[in-house]
Fold this protein.
Amino acid sequence: MSALAQPDVSCVCATESDTDAAAAALAARLQPGDVIVLTGDLGAGKTRFVQGVARALGIDQEVTSPTFAIHVVYAGGALELNHFDLYRLESELDLEDIGYWEILEGDGASFVEWGDKFPDALPVDYALLDIQVDDGGNRVMRVEARGPRSMHLAESLG
């Protein structure tokens, strides 16, 4: 754990309603410039969590995995939502082509799937949300705060 990291906060979501509740709790604390890095196996529920956040923010658009688009922005809610999927990118240099850093510093909150692939491209303060599926099919969410702002976000899941 880095010097800036805070203690982990965890929750277990047995149903999609539980996942939506966790996403809504986090959404209620989001502010422009917040960054949440999502990790977990394929199919663990990263995009599903972002869908819950979007609903909680009042975004009416259908949220889908941005695997092929790399970045999708959802507007029309309480806060603009940026959704990245860096799975297909080969190099950190590819981030420049999509305006990654400018978007992270913009007016919305950003959710970055597979963001841990490029650790040097992460901001100083972000929340790392790892989603795993246990043997019982529950989503186990563990969030690690990487700064004071993200600690406030992490507490929403505790």
